[in-house]
Amino acid sequence: MIVARVLNGQLHVLDRLQEMVRLAAGLDEDNRLDKPSRVRALECLSRFGERLREMPPGTVRAVGTNTLRQARNAGKFLAAAEQALGHSIEIISGQEEARLIYQGVARNLPDDDRQRLVFDIGGGSTEIVVGRRQEPVRMESLYVGCVGLSRAHFPKGRLTAKAMRRAETAAHLEFQPVEAQFRALGWQSAYGSSGTVRAIGAVVQARRWGEGDITLDALYRLRDLLLAAGQVRQLKSLGMSEERAAVLPGGLAIMIAAFEALKIERLEVADGALREGLLYDLLGRIRHEDVRARTIAGLCGRYQVDRAQAERVARTAQHCLALTAETWGLDEEAGRALDWAARLHEVGLAIAHSKYHRHGAYLVQHSDMPGFSWQEQRLLAALVRGHRRRFPEEVFGEFPKGPARTARRLAVLLRLAVLLHRGHAEMELPAFRLKVGKRT
């Protein structure tokens, strides 16, 4: 967790809190989070919640990544997690995670035109990005992380050459489908972020195995050191916590595979990562530089949406919102969701006119949408689906109770706006009023 203040347009870190929960280690064979991992996570979030107690909701962003993307019982856990933290928690896609990581790293790099590679190892996934300045060019999220790989190949902390070979092979298989495309893009500098890379970088620097950066030769030396130790508990001499040492073997295997697959010569340890990226993204929203607005505009252009009609519907939907927001308790974020859904409601026409609301919902649900969490995409998809024909109660019934009520109300407002502009013609609507009840 990072707490920062904006001074003269720049973020200044006030506090950093970090605890290794290793949530990925709690996934069982059925991809369900076990009780001990849930308890550890909730206790950690409760401590963080104490620090964030006085902060307004609009100034806090919390996200869940690969483990919560996979966990079959993520919904139930998420409700308890949000209660413990005192703020909402978004689940983000692998692509969005990669984008935010790149933002967190790139903001602390020179603003030059050189292409750079950013590489991040998490507990359950690994993100690779090639970009220039603040814009990513190519992003991938691979289903291999230091926690999962360590648990699979180094049970009980045993470190053997055979286990390391198998771990490296498993990591190589994840890189194989994308390595050629990334090598073809090329880069002038490479950066690694997050705990595993920093831990390895600290060992390399302490042992003087490089000139301040990480090389493949240094990784091979570290591998020899681990194998000579034979047990994770013998790695205390490396100067890292017991929790970090437990996942170091898997993280090292991923690093070696990345260097070999992508032909990385040298890797610098970056200061920023996902948390910093979240802060900069939040700052952009506060400054009305919301990447989500660009994403919506991009989708409208990609699928050749009738922008004039979308604007008419969006304008009327916002008028309906203004008439009902106080009674229904609809906030600014709900208003943004309604506006975006109005602009996307006809996106499915790019596929077919018949059942275009269903096609549109599918496109919104499954497109890569920079800036949006899974929950936000799910809401937009539900609104697009529900803007015409039979009201899809089964879709809204899948939301938690509070969000479901908000989603239904937004869908009603969108349906009304669409009906009022059914003729697809520019015309001035007569003045109207809406009367709603708090329970409707």
TrEMBL record:
Residues 291-430 form the Ppx/GppA phosphatase C-terminal domain. GO terms for molecular function: exopolyphosphatase activity. InterPro entries: ATPase_NBD, GppA/Ppx_hydrolase, Ppx_GppA_C, Ppx_GppA_N. Residues 2-284 form the Ppx/GppA phosphatase N-terminal domain. GO terms for biological process: polyphosphate catabolic process. It holds the Pfam family Ppx-GppA. This is Exopolyphosphatase.
